[in-house]
Write a structure and sequence with these properties.
The structure holds two protein chains of two kinds. By secondary structure, chain A is mainly α. Chain A has one domain: Growth Hormone, Chain: A, CATH 1.20.1250. The relative contact order of chain A is 0.18. In chain B, strand 1 and strand 2 form a beta hairpin. By secondary structure, chain B is of the alpha+beta class. Chain B is 19% helix and 41% strand. Chain B contains two helices and nine strands. Chain B has a single domain, classed as Immunoglobulin-like (Sandwich). The chains are: A mainly alpha, B alpha+beta. Chains A and B meet through helix 3 and helix 5 of A and strand 5 and strand 7 of B.
Amino acid sequence: MFSTILIVFREILEASLVVSIVMAATKTVPGRGFWVSVGLTGGAVGAGLVAAFAEVISGWASGMGQELFNAAVMFIAVAMLAWHSIWMGRHGREMVQELGAVGKAVTAGTRSLSGLAVVVGVAMLREGSEAVLFLYGIAAGDPGQTPQMIVGGLIGLAGGVALGGGLYFGLLQISTRRLFSVTNALIIFLAAGMASQGVGFLIAAEWLPAWGDMVWDSSWLIADTSVVGKMLHALVGYTARPAGMQIFVYLATLGLISAMARKFGQPAART
Amino acid sequence: MSKFSVLAATLTLAASLASSAFAADAAFSLSLKDHKFTPAELTIPANTKVKITLKNLDKTTAEFISDDFKGGKLVEGGKEASFFIGPLKAGHYEFHDEYHEAASKSRLIVK
């Protein structure tokens, strides 16, 4: 049962951290609770579907369908995070000034929220489908274990959610004036991490060259499978053995989104 | 077998000359039963990207993973999946099923 707790905890952890960043980033946007719930529900349903059709997905692209699917899902999330980040560059100041008042930014805010709902959904879908497959495997393989599995799964789930909650309330300690610069930075790192992960899947499927299969190996310090490794993976896209291409795409995404947020964020005073 | 070693040697040569991610691959099969891999010790050529096809004969879901190198995949009970590992330097590595680590710990020999 302990291993079930740990496995579910690790799978949920990443999704939970993503959700807490999204929640903090949209602190003053009305209707965020609704959109985050839409994302969570959609992601949970999606996780079930992906798990149910895992074999079909696997069969695409001569056995590399799982990798391509994961990559596609990652890039959708990156696009949505970039969109939000650029939108924040434009409206962040207004949001701080109006502090939760139903302002001019609301329409745009809701639109950007739907994008973030997709990000939440994607995080749930990716991590959730693995948890579902794992738990389903236990249920199918050893029915006697099912009660322990359910209890273990729930404890793991609670642990993952608690950690995300911790990050969320930690972020809320930051004054509203500075909160959005912090969450915007977190979102850009989140996007870069997801882009590098997506590229990692494309390399695994041999759709992209690796440009150096393993530029460094820091697994002796922080292994990808450790809880700290998983947290850093979710937050800043840490991986112990990055390919050159992943590092390139990571830095390119960081630079591109920052530059675009600055460029398109300028005419904030006009609206 | 000799045919294979010629192939492996050619691939190693090709990989070291072109060092391209798109070089042709050598392929190996693994199966998983009662959370144990067969063969328990897998030997693959050094500096070559290798395609592994894992057949999961258990009912439980398994995930091929290593603490020593990247690559691996989730394989549902009764299903099979393929993925790439390497190129790796000569040496000994470990791999296991993420969900049954103690039972499934196996050795990968690269030479």
